[in-house]
Amino acid sequence: MILSLRNRLLISVLALPLVAGAAFAQGAIRIGLAEDPDVLDPTLARTYVGRIVFASICDKLFDIDAKLNIVPQLALSHETAADGKAVTIKLRPGVTFHDGEALDAEAAKYSLERHMTMSGSFRRSELSQVDKVEVVDPLTIRLLLKTPFSPLIAQLTDRAGMMVSPKAAKEAGDKFGQRPVCAGPYKFVERVQQDRIVVEKFANYWNKANVHIDKVTYVPITDSTVRLANLKSGQLDLIERALATDIKDIRASAGLKLATAFELGYQGLTLNIGKDEAKGGLSSDARVRQAFEASLDREALNQVVFNGEFKPGNQWVSPLNSYYQESLPVGKRDIAKAKKLITESGVKTPIAVDLMVPNNPETRQVAEVMQAMAAEAGFDVKLRVTEFATSLKEAEAGKYQAYLLAWSGRTDPDGNIISFAQTGAPNNYSAYSNPDVDAALTDARTKNDPKERKAAYLKASTQLLKDLPVIYLYHRLVIIAHRDRLTGYEQMPDGLVRLTGLKLK
């Protein structure tokens, strides 16, 4: 394995002795990230790793607790009208943005409308049922909806609910993400691409009594072995996405602690159906996509790469989720079925597949195992290892045939599917379109009864498992490792690293 110069330098640092109290400033911590985030603008951002950074700088109207209950954050409460078409939200008084501007109803209205209308917004689909935002009084807004929209408050627990300073956003325009100004516990200080993001405690934070660490530096280190080595040596205080194969080592290491939770999202193989310029076999016939899925053994993949710590799955929610469709279980590997489907499709073998893989060791190993499995059915899979942010741009442009892509997940199942499967949705990299799926997903959004919503999702799931714009593979265990000098850390199922309440010994 050839490491980058930067990672080799990080390894060499491990040999240097640390002088107690001199390595880093008192009250400062360093967090190792698996990737460098994309733009730090909650309206335009897409990456999971970006959400980890946003958790420190951009509070939301609502948040979740460990049991996925929705709890107040910048909002105090909400009330939904009897017809489901209006939601009134009371804001927390006395909140200011990092630039000193007040977070009032006008500011909240501005932030939501920015998410809804800004060019390139990835929040537009999340708030697509909001017709209008009204200011009721200085600390109250009302969202008028086109139709009842059951996932709305859950959407506001994530980037769609993040509030930005209107003054700063207007002044910066599309460059706001270079120096974001929000209302979180930490304010942005600097960013050096591929090197670090630095934030410092915001003195006027509304919940400042629960913020105990003065400074946080996020360090992107793509190599998981290097991340863990730096954690062990004390060069890092916390790392996200430690490997499942390292769990035993972490538990046995003096001075380290482990925090885990099963994720809300999934790891899947997105297949280019509508924008494949090469007109390959996967995009030409659903039977070829079904054959590719039949060639895969999800449980073997889990055992080989993850020591059995993850959970195989075939839907956009895990088998642990109440919205999982038990009537559509994970299929077993069937090479004979795969070959039969290929024969019926008329596509000649070997079937070339350009598989784009984000550049980290674990993901590459998954791709290599799938490559070997699919070869037995007649697929010639070529791996194209790509830097993560670049891979998103390639996917958006349709410059791929298959893409190994994770989704960190949302508390409401709508957040795991609508943006990926609905016709024209911003994260629909597959360019998939099916009116029956569109109708079923839209129907599920208008229902409040979980049984009615699950019935609507069954229609969508049944069709999606035939069309296969995404082959869902497994659901990860969120694995966070940290030094034992950090106390009070709690891992939520959304995989974010929350710093409020965290203390240094």
Description:
With 505 residues, this protein is an alpha+beta fold. Helix content is 30%, strand content 22%. It has three domains: 5-34 and 185-263 and 478-504, 3-Layer(aba) Sandwich (D-Maltodextrin-Binding Protein, domain 2), CATH 3.40.190.10; 62-168, Dipeptide-binding Protein, domain 1; 266-475, Roll (Dipeptide-binding Protein, domain 3). Strands 8-9-10-1-11-19-12 form a seven-stranded mixed β-sheet, sandwiched between helices. Strands 14-18-13-17-15-16 form a six-stranded mixed β-sheet. Helix 9 packs antiparallel against helix 11 (335-345) and helix 15 packs antiparallel against helix 16. The relative contact order is 0.16.
Task: Please outline the helices and strands.
Blueprint: H1 5-13, E1 28-33, H2 48-57, E2 62-64, E3 70-72, E4 75-80, E5 86-91, H3 105-117, E6 130-137, E7 140-145, H4 152-155, H5 166-172, E8 186-192, E9 196-201, E10 215-220, H6 224-233, E11 238-239, H7 247-252, E12 256-262, E13 266-271, H8 281-284, H9 286-294, H10 298-306, E14 311-312, H11 335-345, E15 351-358, H12 361-375, E16 379-386, H13 388-396, E17 402-407, H14 418-421, H15 435-445, H16 450-467, E18 470-475, E19 477-483, E20 486-487, E21 503-504
Parallel strand pairs: 1-10, 1-11, 15-16, 15-17
Antiparallel strand pairs: 2-3, 4-5, 5-7, 6-7, 8-9, 9-10, 11-19, 12-19, 13-17, 13-18, 14-18, 20-21
Helix pairs in contact: 9-11, 15-16
CATH uppermost class of the largest domain: Alpha Beta
Regions with pLDDT < 50 over 5+ consecutive residues? 1-25
Strand arrangement across the biggest beta sheet: 8-9-10-1-11-19-12
Second-tier CATH architecture of the largest domain: Roll
Proportion of residues in helical segments: 25-40%
Q: What's the total number of strands?
A: 21
Query: SS-based structural class?
Result: alpha+beta
User: CA-to-CA gap between the ends?
Assistant: 37 Å
Principal-axes shape call: globular
How is the biggest beta sheet arranged?
7 strands, mixed
Question: What is the number of domains?
Answer: 3
CATH superfamily of the largest domain: Dipeptide-binding Protein, Domain 3
Q: Might you state the CATH topology name of the largest domain?
A: Dipeptide-binding Protein, domain 3
Which percent band covers the strand fraction? 15-25%
